[in-house]
Design brief:
- The chain has 14 helices and 24 strands.
- The chain is an alpha/beta fold.
- Helix 2 runs parallel beside helix 10 (352-366), helix 4 (88-106) crosses helix 5 and helix 4 crosses helix 8 (220-231).
- The longest helix has 19 residues, at 88-106.
- The N and C termini lie far apart (79 Å).
Length: 504
């Protein structure tokens, strides 16, 4: 029988129709069908990753390259995920042209050379280039070079260490990693479901500028898209139920972002709740709880995200269908030592870079590194909002630090207080805040607001994540004349206000 099976394995009729695989198994049915073999459509891998967005790709790549594991990755949409095609990348491509133009206008000499505004079609063409015209073929060589097998289709768990992809069964020897990401949340507002509202997917890939754009939600997506499309000529209205924009950040950050948006003509409605939505022949109207209404050709809903974990077979392993998947700091699902969830699927931090961080930790756990734990994907996760001014923050706000019971104090400074800020140009009066745990004398939070502060954030991330004592941080010399001398200003002001010397 072994010789017969070997012969059939070699026969083209029974070769794997999905390309390179680790093993195919064949079952022998002896009763009533002597000698007949039936192929069981199962493939064996060491690890199966569900979702080929940034977190899934990083997990698969680390397992394949560092651990020499045989890895399968499953994707039903575009390899590269939401961030690459419908969120982070296209949104920044839309925002960047106006940012460059504004900076040039702030600098005498360069400002005089500017004779026009943005070229709309060139901006949209560049956006399309950044997302490769929604074609993921350029992503595939990265997987192929690492020997990662891609399965296209909808994945669902089918019991422990088993994943079905349409008609195929993938069997994992060691682990399954869920990296399915998230989608835009749609609130239950009467009429909204039938109004043809846009999510981040439609707004970041739009081919034309809507004359009037209404944005429901003043969080990160809402304010960035208000900035982008107002700069391209849309009349934008932002509706936010809370009292400030970007409500999870320091209050002054929301105020300064709101000021920046109003300067370019954005209408901001704070403390306003949508009560109904209706669609007419050419426009969509949003009714507000104060009796007013907002009408526009397009409506963007940007009120948050929800995980894509429904319908992926979680009940087959005893877990609830849908919702964020609870994980330990190891990224393992409690009671399921073979199952991991990384990125938006676990709800710990809905940021691409946090998902990539978690993916590295999960991969190392699978590879046997038992000390690997995610410790910096909570408040210590850095976050950037690419408005004008930009907001770059890491760690806790002052209010969050006090709520956590920390003996926290804030050191506030003008972002442009250093000599190096003179080169950014005129009209850049924004604020920064450093939140210090006085007892331990370490930073627990930093918020920077101003032009191009995103690239300055990583120093703060290191200080917060590594809990660098201020007495040590004071020996990190800031180069002159750069904006990084803001750190020197912070340390000196802390010394004055606390009446201490950090040189000890």
């Amino acid at each position: 029988m072994g010789e017969l099976a070997d012969a059939l394995h070699r026969h083209p009729m029974f070769r794997a129709r999905k390309g390179r695989v680790r093993a195919e198994t064949f079952q022998v049915f002896g009763v009533g069908c002597a000698g007949r073999l039936s192929p069981a459509l199962d493939y064996e891998f060491d690890v199966v990753v569900i979702g080929a967005g940034p977190a899934g790709e990083i997990a698969a790549g680390r397992l394949a390259t560092r651990g020499h594991r045989r890895v399968a990755i499953v994707e039903r949409d575009l390899v590269g995920g939401e961030c690459s095609f419908y969120a982070c990348m296209p949104s920044k491509a839309l925002l960047r042209p106006q940012e460059v133009l504004d900076e040039a206008r702030r600098v005498p000499g360069a400002a005089q050379a500017i004779s026009g505004g943005l070229d709309l079609q060139a901006v949209l063409d560049r956006r399309d280039e950044v997302v490769n015209n929604l074609d993921d073929s350029h992503q595939l060589p990265w997987l192929e070079d690492r020997g990662i097998k891609l399965f296209r289709g909808t994945a669902r768990l089918d019991g422990e260490l088993r994943v079905r992809v349409d008609d195929d069964l993938l069997v994992a020897r060691e682990a399954v990693v869920i990296a399915t990401g998230s989608t835009a949340a749609m609130p239950t507002i009467p009429g909204l479901a039938d109004a043809g509202a846009w999510s981040n997917r439609q707004i970041t890939t739009a081919k034309q500028v809507p004359p009037r754009l209404t944005i429901l939600g003043g969080g990160v997506v809402g304010v960035e898209m208000a900035q982008a499309w107002a700069s391209l000529g849309a009349q934008v209205t932002v509706i936010e139920a809370q009292a400030s924009l970007i409500g999870n950040e320091e209050p002054f950050a929301g105020e300064q972002v709101a000021d920046g948006l109003r300067k370019i003509g954005v209408d901001i409605r704070l403390g306003a709740k949508a009560t109904a939505v209706s669609r007419g022949d050419t426009a969509i109207t949003v009714e507000l709880d104060d009796g007013s209404s907002v009408t526009g050709e397009r409506l963007l809903v940007a009120v948050g995200r929800e995980p894509l974990t429904g319908g992926i077979g979680l009940p087959t392993v005893g877990l609830a269908d849908g919702g964020f998947i609870e994980v330990e700091d190891t990224l393992e699902v409690p009671g399921h030592p073979w199952l991991y969830a990384v990125g938006d699927a676990n709800g710990r931090s809905l940021l691409t870079h946090a998902g990539k961080y978690q993916a590295r930790i999960a991969a190392d756990r699978i590879l046997g590194h038992t000390d690997a734990r995610a410790v910096a994907d909570g408040a210590a996760t850095p976050r950037v909002i690419f408005t004008d001014p930009q907001v770059a923050a890491v760690g806790l706000t002052l209010a969050a630090a006090l709520d956590a019971g920390l003996p926290a104090v804030a050191v506030d400074l003008p972002t442009g207080s250093s000599a190096g800020s003179a080169f950014i140009g005129h009209g850049t009066s924004n604020s920064s805040r450093f939140v210090v745990d006085r007892e331990r004398e370490v930073l627990v939070g930093v918020t920077l607001v101003g032009p191009s502060v995103a690239e300055s954030l990583h120093a703060a991330s290191i200080a917060v994540a590594a809990q660098v004592p201020l007495a040590r941080l004071t020996h990190a010399i800031a180069p002159f004349p750069t904006r990084s001398e803001l750190w020197l200003s912070f340390l000196e002001k802390y010394e004055r206000e606390q009446d201490v010397s950090l040189h000890r």
